[in-house]
Design a protein that fits this description.
The structure is a homodimer. With about 650 residues, chain A is of the alpha+beta class. The first copy, chain A, folds into 4 domains: about 1-60, Roll (Ubiquitin-like (UB roll)), CATH 3.10.20; about 65-240, Threonyl-tRNA Synthetase, Chain A, domain 2 (2-Layer Sandwich), CATH 3.30.980.10; about 255-535, Bira Bifunctional Protein, Domain 2 (BirA Bifunctional Protein, domain 2); about 550-640, Rossmann fold (3-Layer(aba) Sandwich), CATH 3.40.50. Helices cover about 35% and strands about 25% of the residues of chain A. In chain A, the strands form 9 sheets. In chain A, strands 18-22-23-30-27-26-24-25 form an 8-stranded mixed beta sheet, with helices on both faces. In chain A, a hairpin with a 5-residue loop joins strand 26 and strand 27 (about 485-495). Chain A starts with a strand and ends with a helix. Chains A and B meet through strand 17, helix 9, strand 18, strand 19 and helix 10 of A and strand 17, helix 9, strand 18, strand 19 and helix 10 of B.
Chain lengths: ~650, ~650
C-alpha cells in the first residue's frame, strides 16, 4: 500500500506502485490530459516516474509556473537537437528554462547564427516536436557519461560531469537526441505546438569573462499557436511602452556617460511629474499625521555598523568615503532608517506622544553591476517615498490599517486597480531565526492579518517569508500588460529599535522599546514612474501628466488669442502651452499626439470671433467648439474622477 | 621735494621729509586728531613714521577696518604688558588683531586665568592705557633680539626670531614694555579708553597639537566707553539669537554624533519651514520661466575633472568613492553646475529656445575641518537654491535684470530691507588672468552694471575682484543686529561652457557657445535659515513660521470647541494646533511665547457660548474676543503685507 497526499490534503491509497500520470488519471481523465509535470516530496519528477513510497504529489498543468518551467526546459532540449542537426558539430553546454521561455548556450565553432536563421531553427524544432518523442530519463555512470561527451569532443559537458558525484548523473533522451539533464520534462515533444526563437546574444562559459564566449539562443514555446501570437503581441506592445524609449520621447529623464551609468538626470518635464507625484503623497501623508524630515545623503561608517547595513551592503556597494582626516569615514546612505532612528533619538518620548511618523523623500545609493542596470527600474541612486512609524506594540493594529488606506489611495489615484497582497510571517518551526519577543511577533502578525482582512485585501499568508527582524505586507500590482510588479511594502521592525536603543516612557513610567514600521507606497520614485510609464504607455492620469493641454494656432495671427486662452487656463490651474510654430495643423497635431498631450485646443478665426476654443482629445475625439469655462469644467471633472481627497 | 598721493588722487608736495601724522595735519587738524594709523605704498606704517620718498598714503581713523586693526593690535600690546605685570614670568608668544578685537597667546607657567581674573586684567590695562605711552618702533639686530629673549628665557620668541632675516627685525616699545613686532600701531596707549577681556581658551603653540598648549586670552577695546557698552549689548543679543540655541529651542534641526558632525538633521518643524521657503522660491521661479530638474548627489570623478572642480576640491574634500569595480570612481558633488551642463548637453539647442533656466534645490557636500563647523552656517552638506541660466551673450542684460528682480523679491518677502551690492569686474591691467573673449567680458560687465543701475541698487564696483571665469554681482545684507552677511550671488561663467563644449545653433546656422549664469538668492538653505533665525530672533514672517497659531483651552472641557476652531482655521489654510495639556493658562502662554508662536487663541466658556475666540499676540497684545472669520482676515492681511506676488 502506498498513500499519496494531494495538495488539497486528500490522500489516495494504491495497492501497487503507480506513476504520477496514473494518479492524475485516477483523479480525472480530463485533468490527466493537461498534466505536464509533477513534484513528489518536493522533488521535481517526470509524469512517467513511478511512485514507490508514501508522499506528497503535486501535478502541474501549463497554467502553473512549475508546469511552464518543465514545458520550457523540455523545449530547450528540442532547440538543442535542432541546433545539432542544423549545425553539425556544435558543442552544447547548458540550456535552462527562464522566466519567459528558455535559452541554450552553444559553442558554434565556425558557424554564426543571426536573425535570418531563426525561421529555419523554428521549422526544425516544430518538425522534431511533431514527432511526439517521449522524454526518457536514465541513470548513467560517471565513466560512461564522461566517455559519451569525450567522444563528442564536448569539453563543456565533460567539465560539468567532472563536478558531479557518480550515481547522481542522469541523461535525458528523446528522438535521436541525448543530453546531460537533471530531469523535469513534459511527457513528450508533441505537446509543444508553437515555438519562437527570440534572439541571440554572447555569453561567457560559466559567466566568467576570462572564459570562452558562447552563443546564447533565446526562445519561447507554447502549447497553442494562439498563445504564441498573444505573447508576441504583448512583447510588441511592451517594446512600444518601454519606459526608456518613452522617457526619451517625452523628455522625462536622461543619462549621461560623464555623470555615470545608473544615475538618472531628471529633465524639466520628468521633474514636474515627479514633484507632482511627491506633492500628492505629501498632502495625503500630512492628513494621515506624518511629519516630514530631511536628512543628509551620507552618514558616518559607525552609523551603518550600528544599523547593520554596513555588514549587509559594505563590500558589494559604494566604498567608504575617506576624508583628509584619517579617522573619519562616511558612507553614501543605502537606507534612510538609521537617520530617522537618530531623529527619534534626539529627544525623550512619552507614550502619549506616539506614534511618531517621520516621512522623507530620501535619495539612497546602492552599487549595482553595470550589466544589471536597466533604465529607471534598476539604478544606482533612487529616491524612496520613505517613512518610519515609531509606535507602541498596541498601536500596530491601527497603524497598519492606516498605512493600507494610504497605499490603496495611492494605487487608486494612479489607475492600478488589479493587485494582490502577501503577508509574510514567521516559520513557527524555527523561532530561533527571529529577533524580538514571540508575543510581539504574534501581535504584529495578527495586526497585519486583521488589517488585511479589515481592508478586504485579496491576500495570501506565506509562512517563513518574514525577514528576521519582523513580518511584512507586500503589494503585487498587475499592469495593463498583465505583468506583475511588487509595489508598496509595509514592514514591521524589531531590530533597529534594539540596535539604536530607542525608547519611550510608558504609562507605567518605565522605558519601553517602540516598534518601527517601514513603509513606502511607491517604493522608489524612479522605479514607480518607470512602471507607471509602461502601465499607461505615457498617457498618465490627467492630474499628473506634465502638459495637460496644448494650444495649436491655425496661423501666427492667432498668437495673441492663444496667449489669452493660455492665461485663462493657467488661472484655472490647467497646465498648458502654446504651439505657435510655423507648421501645418496636421504636423502640430501629430507632434501633440506623439507627446501624449491629453487635450489639443485649436484656435483660429472662428474661435477668436466667438471667444471659444475647438477641443480635440488625444486619440482623436472631437469635443467641438466650446468656452474655456466649459472646457475647464471638463478637465476638472475628469481629474476628480481619478484623484480623490484622501 | 617729495610728492604724497592721497586716496582721492590728489597729490601734496613737501620740500622736506614729513611724518604721516603731519600730512594728516596738513589736510585738517580735526581729521589729524582722529587719524590712528596709516599705510604708505601698500605697507603698514606708524603715524609717526617719516616719509622720505614719493608714494601713496592712506590715513585711517577708527571708522576704517585698517584703523580698527591697528587699534586692536596695539591693545594686544597693552594686554601683554598687563599680563606680564600681573603674572611675573609668563612667556609671551603672539598677539594679533582679529575680526572683533584681539588675543594674546601666553605660556602662563604655574598660573591659571579664569573669568574671575578678567576684572583685574582690565583694570591693569586701563591703568597702562591712561599713561598715554607712545608706541615706538625700533630696528634690532638678530643677535640683540635673540639675546633679549634668551635673557627672558622665552623660547617662543627665540623660535620666532630664529626664523626671521637679520635686518628685518623690529621691536615695539611702550611704557616699560617691549615686544617683537612688525608694526602698525596707534600713536599712543591713551587712545584706548575701554577694554574688555572676553574669554580664555587653550591654543597650541603654532596651532600644532603636538606642541605645548598655551592660554589664549581674548579681548576687545574701544576709543569710547559707549562703544564698548553697545558692543556688549550686541553680543548679549547675538547670544540670545544664536541660531544653534534657537534651532534647538524651536525644534527646527538637530545634529547626531553617529550621523556625523556638520550634517544637519531637519526636524519636522524645520523641514516644514524649509519646504515652505523652497516652495515660495519655486513658485516665483516658475513665473520667472525657470524649469526644475533633479540630479544625483554623486558623479564620476571624470565629470569633476572635466569641470575643474576636482582640481579645486579634490585633495581637501571628501575623497573619491571607490566601487567593487576598480575602474569606476565617484565623488560627492561639491557643486550642481556640472550636472546641469550635462542636462543642457543632452540635446541640441537653437538660439530660439534660449535662455534655458534649470533650477534645483541641490544638496552638495564639502569637507570642512571639524573645528570650522558652526551650527548651520558652516556645515559639511548643504542645499543650494541653485539655478543655471544658459543664454546668448545678447540675452545677458535682460537675464541679469530678471535675476535681480527675483533676488529683491526674496529679500523683501523675508524682511531684509538693508542691503548693498558689489559688482566684481576684471583687473584690466592683467587681461591674461581671465578666460573668455574680452568683448564678451565687456558685454557682461556692462550688463551687470546696467542692471544694477536700472534696479537702483546701492552698489560699488570692485576692479580685479571677478573670478577668472566671469564677473559677478554679490548682495551684502545687514541683519537686525547690524551684522553683514553675504547673501545672493549672480555669477557669469565663460569657463564651464568651454569645458563642457556647450553650444547652440545661432541665427547664422553656426554653432556658438552659450553664456552661463550661476545664481542662488538664498545661497544655501541651511545658512540662510540660520541668518534668518538670528535676524528675526525666531519670530519668522507670519507666512513662513511653522506654527502660526496655538489654541489654548482654559480646561479640558473645551477640547471639542478647540477642535472645531482648529478645523475652521485649517480650512482657511492657517497652521494651528491645540494645547490641551492639563496646565495653567499662564504656563501654556509662557510656552507659546517661548515657542515664538505669533497668535494664541484662548477658548473657554464665554468663547464657546458666543462662538468666538479670544486672541492674544506673541508679546502680549490683546485682540479681544472676535470671530474666527475676522481672525482669519487679520492673518491674511498680515501675510499679504510681507508676502507679495512675484
Amino acid at each position: 500500500m502506498i498513500n499519496i497526499t494531494l495538495p488539497d490534503g486528500s490522500v489516495r491509497s494504491y495497492e501497487n506502485e503507480i506513476t504520477a500520470k496514473d494518479v492524475a488519471k485516477d483523479i480525472s481523465e480530463g485533468f490527466a490530459r493537461n498534466v505536464i509535470s509533477a513534484k513528489f516530496n518536493d522533488k521535481v519528477i517526470e509524469t512517467a516516474t513511478t511512485l514507490t513510497e508514501d508522499g506528497s504529489l503535486i501535478l502541474y498543468t501549463w497554467r502553473d509556473n512549475d508546469g511552464k518551467k518543465a514545458f520550457w526546459h523540455s523545449s530547450s532540449h528540442i532547440l538543442a537537437q535542432a541546433l545539432e542537426e542544423l549545425y553539425p558539430g556544435v558543442k552544447l553546454t547548458i540550456g535552462p528554462a527562464i522566466e519567459n521561455g528558455f535559452y541554450y548556450d552553444v559553442d558554434l565553432g565556425e558557424y554564426t547564427i543571426s536573425d535570418k536563421d531563426f525561421k529555419s531553427i523554428e521549422a526544425k524544432m516544430l518538425e522534431i516536436a511533431r514527432g511526439k518523442h517521449d522524454f526518457k530519463m536514465k541513470s548513467v555512470s560517471k565513466a560512461d557519461a564522461l566517455s559519451f561527451y569525450k567522444n563528442q569532443v564536448n569539453e563543456y559537458k565533460v567539465e560539468l560531469i567532472e563536478n558531479l558525484e557518480d550515481g547522481d548523473i542522469t541523461f535525458c533522451d528523446h528522438s535521436t537526441f541525448t543530453d546531460l539533464c537533471r530531469g523535469g520534462h513534459i511527457p513528450n515533444t508533441g505537446i509543444v505546438k508553437a515555438v519562437k526563437v527570440l534572439s541571440v546574444a554572447g555569453a561567457y562559459w560559466r559567466g566568467d569573462e576570462n572564459k570562452k564566449q558562447l552563443t546564447r539562443v533565446y526562445g519561447i514555446s507554447f502549447p497553442k499557436q494562439k498563445d504564441l501570437k498573444e505573447y508576441l503581441e504583448l512583447l510588441e506592445e511592451a517594446k512600444k511602452r518601454d519606459h526608456r524609449k518613452l522617457g526619451k520621447q517625452l523628455e522625462l529623464f536622461t543619462f549621461s556617460q560623464k555623470v555615470g551609468q545608473g544615475l538618472p538626470l531628471w529633465l524639466p518635464k520628468g521633474t514636474s511629474l515627479r514633484n507632482r507625484l511627491e506633492d500628492f503623497l505629501k498632502k495625503a501623508q500630512q492628513k494621515a499625521g506624518y511629519e516630514m524630515v530631511i536628512t543628509p545623503h551620507i552618514g558616518q561608517k559607525e552609523l551603518y555598523i550600528t544599523s547593520g547595513h554596513y555588514a549587509k551592503y559594505g563590500e558589494d556597494s559604494f566604498q567608504p568615503i575617506k576624508t583628509p582626516k584619517l579617522d573619519e569615514e562616511f558612507l553614501l546612505k543605502p537606507m534612510n532608517c538609521p537617520h530617522h532612528c537618530e531623529i527619534y533619538n534626539s529627544k525623550p518620548w512619552s507614550y502619549k506622544e506616539l506614534p511618531k511618523r517621520y516621512a522623507e523623500f530620501g535619495t539612497v545609493y546602492r552599487y549595482e553591476q553595470s550589466g544589471e542596470l536597466h533604465g529607471l527600474t534598476r539604478v544606482r541612486g533612487f529616491t524612496q517615498d520613505d517613512a518610519h512609524i515609531f509606535c507602541t506594540p498596541d498601536q500596530l493594529d491601527a497603524e497598519f490599517k492606516k498605512v493600507i488606506d494610504l497605499v490603496l489611495y495611492v494605487f487608486g489615484s494612479l489607475g492600478f486597480d488589479n493587485f494582490t497582497a502577501q503577508v509574510s510571517v514567521r516559520d513557527l518551526e524555527n523561532p530561533e531565526k527571529y529577533i524580538g519577543a514571540p508575543e510581539n511577533w504574534e501581535k504584529a502578525e495578527q495586526a497585519i492579518i486583521n488589517a488585511a482582512k479589515d481592508k478586504s485585501l485579496d491576500f495570501v499568508i506565506e509562512s517563513g517569508e518574514a525577514a528576521f527582524y519582523g513580518p511584512k505586507l507586500d503589494f503585487m500590482v498587475k499592469d495593463a500588460l498583465g505583468r506583475q510588479w511588487q509595489l508598496g511594502t509595509i514592514q514591521v521592525d524589531y531590530n533597529l529599535p534594539e540596535r539604536f536603543e530607542l525608547s519611550y516612557k510608558g504609562s507605567d513610567n518605565e522605558l519601553h522599546r517602540p516598534v518601527m514600521i517601514h513603509r513606502a507606497p511607491f517604493g522608489s520614485m524612479e522605479r514607480f514612474i518607470a512602471i507607471l510609464l509602461e502601465h499607461t504607455a505615457g498617457n498618465f492620469p490627467l492630474w499628473l501628466i506634465p502638459e495637460q493641454v496644448i494650444i495649436l494656432t491655425i496661423s501666427e495671427k492667432y498668437e495673441k488669442y492663444a496667449e489669452k486662452v493660455l492665461n485663462l487656463l493657467e488661472n484655472n490651474e490647467i497646465r498648458a502651452h502654446v504651439d505657435n510654430r510655423n507648421e501645418t495643423m496636421g504636423k502640430k497635431i501629430r507632434d501633440a499626439e506623439l507627446n501624449k498631450i491629453p487635450f489639443m485646443i485649436i484656435v483660429g478665426e472662428n474661435e477668436e470671433k466667438e471667444n471659444r476654443i475647438s477641443v480635440r482629445r488625444h486619440g482623436g475625439e472631437d469635443l467641438g467648439m466650446i468656452s474655456v469655462v466649459d472646457f475647464s469644467e471638463i478637465v476638472e471633472n475628469e481629474i476628480s474622477k481619478t484623484l480623490k481627497q484622501f
